[in-house]
Specification:
binds guanosine-5'-triphosphate; Rossmann fold; 9 strands; 205 residues; globular; seven-stranded mixed beta sheet; 24% strand; alpha/beta; binds magnesium ion
Length: 205
């Protein structure tokens, strides 16, 4: 699948369609599949498998005890942010044993959402690190589970040692409007980053 600006052909020649690829990443059980399902306008593709007794020692469901399945390849969904601007959402698997899929999923991505749960913030360190190292712009969506203490975005930014330009947005992964806010913030952030990259630094006098 190609992403970016594409000509839509003679029927729609005045209008370009922009399709952007966004990854939804973060630790195990943080709500990635829930987010893609909540916001997608098509029936999301899911690759869920039941959590088994064999995986219990490594699949820590503390805080999400109702969780019965886990993503083993990817989630896929689509949302039209406005006419002519479509986001294709790719949810990553959350467990370390599926890291080998990330490079494939990240190819061609404009940006990423790193979902975080403040009860287990350390679970998203690896995702933050992954996108920082590759220079892929990302926003942090703090999925506010009931019963979890709410921290202001600045406290999460400090705890994750993020630069001031990285958006940190409180959200509810089950709520369409709330997750749309996170997606808009990552698209804006990624577009600003791409403009910055293309604008040459003014040369010293
Ligand atoms: N209360 C509450 N529950 C949530 C929220 N988001 C997700 N859940 C629940 O938390 C569990 C985990 O959600 P998933 O969407 O499967 O998480 P995931 O990040 O895709 O998990 P993996 O793919 O296994 O890493 C599910 O039981 C959801 O119903 C939320 O915002 N609030
Ligand atoms: Mg999942």
């Amino acid at each position: 699948m190609d992403f970016g600006r594409s000509e839509t052909g003679p029927a729609n020649s005045e209008q370009d369609l922009v399709a952007l690829k966004i990854l939804i990443a973060g630790g195990f059980g943080v709500g990635k599949t829930t987010l893609v399902g909540a916001v997608s306008e098509i029936r999301p593709l899911r690759t869920e498998e039941a959590l088994s007794a064999a995986g219990r020692p490594v699949d820590d469901t503390t805080g999400v005890e109702q969780k019965k399945t886990t993503t083993v390849a990817m989630d896929f969904g689509r949302i039209t942010l406005r006419e002519g601007l479509v986001l294709y959402l790719f949810g990553t698997p959350g467990q370390d044993r599926f890291w080998f899929l990330w490079d494939e999923l990240a190819t061609g991505a404009l940006g990423a959402v790193v979902l975080a749960d403040t009860r287990r913030l350390e679970d998203c360190f690896a995702a933050v690190d992954y996108f920082e190292r590759r220079g892929i712009p990302f926003a942090v969506g703090v999925n506010c589970f009931e019963g979890a203490r709410t921290f202001p975005p600045q406290a999460v930014r400090d705890a994750l040692d993020l630069s001031d330009s990285v958006p940190v947005v409180l959200c509810d992964a089950r709520d369409r409007e709330s997750t749309k806010e996170v997606l808009i913030s990552v698209v804006e952030h990624a577009l600003e980053a791409s403009v910055r990259r293309r604008t040459p630094e003014p040369s010293a006098p």
